[in-house]
Design brief:
The structure is a homohexamer. The first copy, chain A, is an alpha+beta fold. The first copy, chain A, has helices at 26-33, 66-81, 86-89, 100-111, and strands at residues 5-17, 42-54, 84-85, 120-128, 131-135. The first copy, chain A, has four helices and five strands. Chains in contact: A-B, A-E, A-F, B-C, B-D, C-D, C-E, D-F, E-F. Chains A, B, C, D, E, F: GO terms for molecular function: 6-carboxytetrahydropterin synthase activity; metal ion binding.
Chain lengths: 138, 138, 138, 138, 138, 138
C-alpha cells in the first residue's frame, strides 16, 4: 500500500487550428506540416486525459475529489478551448504553435497551479484516436 | 438467401467548420447554433460510414469490390474534405450550411454516381462519437 | 433530398438494478435471470442513443436543435436515472422490471412528448458494450 | 408499446482465411481480392452482433433469455470458428468463399433454427472496426 | 532484448456500490461524494486491465501463460465481484470504501500471490470510460 | 518544460499466425498454447502503438515529423506484415515464435534504426482489444 496510485479523468473539446511557423514561407510550412498547414484551418475532436498521482486518504479511499477535479477541468480547459480556433482565439498559442505536443504542455501549465503540490500531474492529449501525445510533467 | 446484404466501409477526415445562416444577425445565429456559430471556426474528426446494399455475387461471395470502394471514398470524400475548412474551401457548402445532416446528404450526392445503380447507398456521419447523423438515401 | 434524415445524440447514466419478478420464488428468478437476480443489486454504465428522424430545414440545415435536444435528454433521462437504483428510486419501474428492453421502452415514453410530433423517435440502450436493446418507436 | 423491440448480443472469434475463387488463376484472384488472396492466409478478430427482434414478455420484461442466447452463440458460433482457419477447418466454406458477406449469411443459417420462429434474427459481422457486413435475414 | 516486456489482459465485472464514510453524516458524505453517496446504491461496468511485467522465455516467446492468467483472473476477480454489491456482498470492502482507487488496490492484493514473484504486477481499473485509476504495485 | 514529451502513432495490420515450438510434440504445444497451436493457423487484427519520446523543437513545437514517422511505419511495419502469415511469410519469425510479446520486440528492432538516436522508442501491440503487450525499449 506504499505505492502511489493514479486517478484519471477524461475531458474533451472540439477546436480548429493551423500548424505553421509564421516566419516561414508557405512552401517550407507545407513541407514540414503538410495538410496541417492549410491557412484556412482544419479541426479535431480533442480528448484530454488528466492524470493525478499520489497517496490515497485512508478514511475516504480517494486521492483527490473527482467532483472538484471535474469542475476545474471544465472551467480551465473545456471552457477555454471548446469550439475555439486555437490560433485566433487563444492567447496561449500566440507564441507557440498549437501542435498536439504543445497543447499538451500548455494544458499541464494551466492545470498545475490548481492541483495540490504534493500530487503529480500528467497530461495525455488525443488529437485523433490514432495520433496523440503525453506530457508526464510533475 | 434472398434477402439483401449490406457492406460497410468507414473513412475519416478532419475539418474545420462554422454553423451560421449568413443572412442572420450574430445574435440569432448564437441563439440557434450556440458555440458552433464561432466566426473563427472550430473543428472535428469526422468518421464516415458508407453502406452499400444489394445481393452477393454467388461466385465471388462479394457485393461490391471493397478495394475499388475504398479508392472511390478516398478520392471523392477524404481527398475533398480532409484538412479543409468546409465553409471556406469547399464549394459544396456555399449554399448549404455544413451541419452534420447536410454533410451527410452531400456525401450521398457525391458518392451516388460512383455506385452501381442496382445497389442502395446509405451514409452515416459521426461529428463526434456522441453526435451523428444518417441519410439512408437510395 | 426527399428521404428523411436521422440525427443521433448519445447520453449516459450509471445505475444499480435487480432483475426479478416479485411474485416468483428466488429459485425461479435465479433460473430465469441468473446472477442478475442478486437481491443486493448490481449495476451498469448505461449508454443511451436517442434518434430523431425527419426532414432537414432548408435554411438552417438542421432537423432539430441539438442544443435543445441535449438539455431535454439531460433533464428527462440523465437527471432521472443517473446514480440511482432503478428498482428502489424510480417509480417508472415499480410495475415493470428494469430489463434493458423495458428501460429502452420507458425512455421512449418519457421523451416522446418532448419531441415535435412530426418527427420519429427511436431509442437504443447499451447496458454493456456487448449487450443492448433498441426500440424504434414512432 | 405495440412496436417490436430488438435485443443485441456481441460475440467474437479470431480466425484465419483466404479470399480466392478456386477455379480462377492467381492473377485474376489478386486483381479481385488484392492482398486478401494471399495463399498462406491472413486473419482477423471477428466481432459478431446478433440481433433478435420481437415482443417483450409483459411479466418478465424480456424478449429472449440472454443467458440461453449467450450459450447458443458460444456453442454454435464461437466454438465453431474461434482460432480456426475458415478455409481449411470449416466445412461451411468449402463451397462458399469466406468473405465477410458470406460469413454473415452462414452465421444466420446456423443460428436461425435455434431462435424461436416468431422472432426475427439479424447478423452484423465486423471483420475489422472499419469493414463490416449486415444480413437482416428474417 | 534486455528490457522487460509487459503483457496485458482485460477482464470485466458489473457491480453496484455506494461511496460513504459510515461514521460521517449524510450531509458530509453528500458534500464529499456527491451522487455517489446515494444510500440505495448505483453501479458500473468495471473494466480491469491486469499488467504482468518481466522477461520473455526465449524458447516459447511468452512471459506468462495467458491461458492460465485468464483462469486466475476469472476465478479471483470476475467470480468474486461480478453482479455483486461491493458494499454488501464483498468482505474486502467492509473496512475500505469501494472507491475506484481502493478497488484497484484490492485487486492487486488479491492477484499478487497468484503471480510468480519474479514478475511485477500492475492494475488499472476503469469505472467508466472517462474515469479510471491505476496501481502500479510491484 | 524540461520534461520529455511522448508522441504516439497508431498503425495496424491483419495477419495469420500459429503458436507452437517446432521441436515440441503437438500435445505439449496444445497444453501450453491451447487453441493458438492450431496447425492450420488463426489470425488477428493487430493494432500497433508507436511511441517516440524526447524534447520538442521550440520553433516548430514538434518532437518528430509525424508525416515522416507515418511513412516509416507504413513501409517498415504495415507493408511487411499486413495480410501475411507471420510464420510462413516473414523471416523475422523463423527462429522466434510470433507471440504478441515477440512481435512487439521485433517491431522495436525494425523501427529503432529509423528513429533519431536521441529519441526513445516504445512499442505497444494489441493482438485483440483485451490482450496486448508493451516493450518500452530505449
Amino acid at each position: 500500500m506504499s505505492y502511489p496510485v493514479s486517478i484519471y479523468r477524461m475531458a474533451h473539446f472540439n477546436a480548429a487550428h493551423q500548424l505553421a511557423v509564421p516566419s516561414w514561407s508557405a512552401e517550407r510550412n507545407n513541407e514540414t506540416f503538410g495538410k496541417c498547414a492549410n491557412p484556412n484551418f482544419h479541426g479535431h475532436n480533442y480528448e484530454v486525459e488528466v492524470r493525478v498521482t499520489g497517496h490515497v486518504d485512508p478514511e475516504t479511499g480517494i486521492l483527490i475529489n473527482l467532483k472538484d477535479l471535474k469542475v476545474i477541468i471544465e472551467k480551465e480547459v473545456e471552457d477555454r478551448f471548446d469550439h475555439k480556433n486555437l490560433n485566433l482565439d487563444c492567447p496561449e498559442f500566440i507564441e507557440r504553435i498549437p501542435t498536439v505536443e504543445n497543447i499538451c504542455i500548455v494544458i499541464h501549465e494551466i492545470l498545475r497551479p490548481h492541483i495540490p503540490s504534493d500530487l503529480d500531474l500528467g497530461i495525455r492529449l488525443y488529437e485523433t484516436p490514432r495520433n496523440f501525445a503525453e506530457y508526464p510533467g510533475k
